[in-house]
């Protein structure tokens, strides 16, 4: 089945070039030029991934991500100007899973999107015999993709779920940023740790709501670990 991409980009030339290139590689692309229209149609779309430019007319790409994140667990990918570190951090804080810099070569675009989709699809198809992970007050049901804390269901994105599972499997040992990039994102991210740091930040916020913020520790210069 062809992967379906929601693509929000206000520049018609860029939108057409990228959409045409993706379609030539077997993607189905749902195009929108602004965030409001995309959001109003989102519930009717069956998409596997969203590619969102941050510089949009009307509501910004950041606001689109903030509104879309509670609605879905599909990967949300930022498209931003090369080297704009502030945009990247803000987007990840808003709930994005990944980012791509503009301009981007089409071959890199295919490879990155397919890697992100492969991670999402693989993680949603755990083998039937996968064992649940029980860790103190936390229970991870791998087949159902559910996390319960003291019996209460909490909503995690796919990325947050995978990070938590990796930390629990490794506990009490530390998991390095590089290992998380490799195991969760599934490719070498050229040493850019912002993805990991922002996802850890969001996961820690959600744990804090259940009194477990102090269980997720940062080991300076090494990585992260979770303790009971």
Characterization of the model:
The structure is a single chain. This protein starts with a strand and ends with a strand. The strands form 3 sheets. A 5-stranded parallel sheet has the order 2-1-3-4-5, sandwiched between helices. Helix 2 packs parallel to helix 3, helix 4 (85-94) packs parallel to helix 8 and helix 6 packs across helix 7 (177-185). The model is unreliable at 125-129 (pLDDT under 50). Strand 4, helix 4 and strand 5 (98-102) form a beta-alpha-beta unit. It has helices at residues 12-24, 35-42, 61-68, 85-94, 106-123, 158-170, 177-185, 194-208; strands at 4-8, 28-32, 49-53, 76-81, 98-102, 133-135, 138-141, 146-149, 152-154, 175-176, 216-219, 223-226. With 228 residues, the chain is an alpha/beta fold. The protein has 2 domains: 4-123, 3-Layer(aba) Sandwich (Rossmann fold), CATH 3.40.50; 133-226, Arc Repressor Mutant, subunit A (Orthogonal Bundle), CATH 1.10.10. The longest helix is centred in the middle third of the chain and has 18 residues, at 106-123.
């Amino acid at each position: 089945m062809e992967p379906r991409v929601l693509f929000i980009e206000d520049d018609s030339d860029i939108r057409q070039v990228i959409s045409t290139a993706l379609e030539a590689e077997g993607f189905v692309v749902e195009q929108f030029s602004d965030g409001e229209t995309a959001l109003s149609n989102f519930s009717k779309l069956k998409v596997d991934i969203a590619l969102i430019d941050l510089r949009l007319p009307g509501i910004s790409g950041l606001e689109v991500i903030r509104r879309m994140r509670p609605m879905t667990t599909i990967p949300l990918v930022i498209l931003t100007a090369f080297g704009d570190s502030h945009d990247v951090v803000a987007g990840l804080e808003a709930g994005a899973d990944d980012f791509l810099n503009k301009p981007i070569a089409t071959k890199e675009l295919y490879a990155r999107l397919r890697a992100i989709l492969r991670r999402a699809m693989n993680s949603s198809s755990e083998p039937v015999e996968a064992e649940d992970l029980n860790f103190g007050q936390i229970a991870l049901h791998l087949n159902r993709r559910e996390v319960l804390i003291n019996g209460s269901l909490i909503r995690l994105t796919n990325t947050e779920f995978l990070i938590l599972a990796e930390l629990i499997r490794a506990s009490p040992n530390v998991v390095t940023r590089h290992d998380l990039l490799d195991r969760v994102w599934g490719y070498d991210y050229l040493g850019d740790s912002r993805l990991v740091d922002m996802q850890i930040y969001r996961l820690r916020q959600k744990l804090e709501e259940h009194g477990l913020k102090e269980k997720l520790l940062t080991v300076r210069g090494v990585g992260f670990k979770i303790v009971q």
